[in-house]
Amino acid sequence: MIQPYVVVFGSINMDLVAKTPRLPTPGETLLGSRFSTVPGGKGANQAVAVARLGIPTRMVGRVGGDSFGQALLTSLQAAGVNTDGVLLDASNHSGVAMIAVDDRSENHIIVIPGANGQVNEADVERLADRLPGAIALLLQLEVPLATVYSAAQAAHRAGVRVILDPAPASSELPPELYSLVDIITPNAVEVEQLVGFPVTDTATAAEAANILHQRGVNIAVIKLGAQGVFCSTQEDSFFVPAFQVQAVDTVAAGDSFNGGLAAALAEGHAIRQAITWGAAAGALSVTKSGAQSSLPDRASFDAFLKANSDRPA
Predict the structure, then answer these.
(1) For the chain, what percent of residues have pLDDT higher than 70?
(2) Tens of pLDDT along 251-275?
């Protein structure tokens, strides 16, 4: 029997990370304490997050014809991600994210799409070839929105579950996209952009989830940061409290969450357990610096779940 695998369609970036005492105000110059280059991009982060948890993972996207492009491919492959679906686009530079992280673990991020901005229908065709047999398709919004929609359509036709992380936040998702999404995973900022009002607790999360259901989404998963995660299905709703950890860097927490969620589904777990896996993976990721460098492997993930097995559900 072939093990179910996950396909990720989306961005692949090199993160240029500066550590600063605090985030700068407009026009201000600050002295930072540390600089690093770290493979990132929401698509690549999610692919690595799934692969490190032991699930076969295939990435579809683009890198540029520069030194960053080769380094990004090498990093994905080292994490166990199949990169046969990644195009080396010699006419563009690789995507870059410039990230400032302060001493409170808050961040500012500027993304320059590069090759990610050129992802088009040809990439969707490569994606479609890799969907048969997949347990889920992970999508984000760092490649052109029209292409995200086409990718969701391809997965829907193939009978593959679509998991959308609507980040970076956008209030302009096509109405027809929602009905193609099986699971949507916004954080509080992103869901406010989607529904038009602040979401700060389980009550407002439930209101937001109802709106997302009305638009066609099957399962709404709303991440409330240090509070935890609210999940609403067509039949039920529940809340999973956050795992208590010491945060160092929150850059890839959402990507790690989606990786844990998809990994649980690939192993046949129900949605409640999948949310717990997502919360655990996200919590572990914030205890380390960087994007992909912070994503947990299966051994540390299993140990963390075991150590927290008696926490309130």
Answers:
(1) 99
(2) 788 999 999 999 999 999 999 999 9
Q: Which residues contact 80 (CB under 8 A, 6 or more apart)?
A: 51, 52, 57
pTM: 0.92
Interatomic CA distance for residues 11 and 62, integer angstroms:
7
Please name the residue that has the structure tokens 């990093």: 75
Q: Which residues are catalytic?
A: 255
- What is the distance between the alpha carbons of residues 225 and 253, in angstroms, rounded to a whole number? 9
5 — phi, psi (to 5°)?
-125, 165
Pairing of strands 13-19, 95-101: parallel
- Alpha helices (H) along the chain: 42-52, 67-78, 121-130, 145-158, 175-178, 188-195, 202-214, 253-266, 271-285, 298-307
Sorted by sequence, the CB contacts under 8 Å of residue 13 that are 6+ apart come out as 39, 40, 41, 44, 72, 94, 95, 96, 97, 111, 114, 116, 142
Is there a contact between 106 and 116 (Cβ–Cβ < 8 Å)? no
**Domains of the chain as residue ranges with CATH:** 8-24+35-306 (3.40.1190.20)
Contacts of 98 (CB under 8 A, 6+ apart): 16, 18, 109, 110, 112
Expressed in angstroms, the distance from the first to the final Cα of the chain is 34
CA 279 – CA 276 distance, rounded (Å): 5
Going by C-alpha positions, the residue among 129, 111, 128 that lies closest to residue 42 is 111
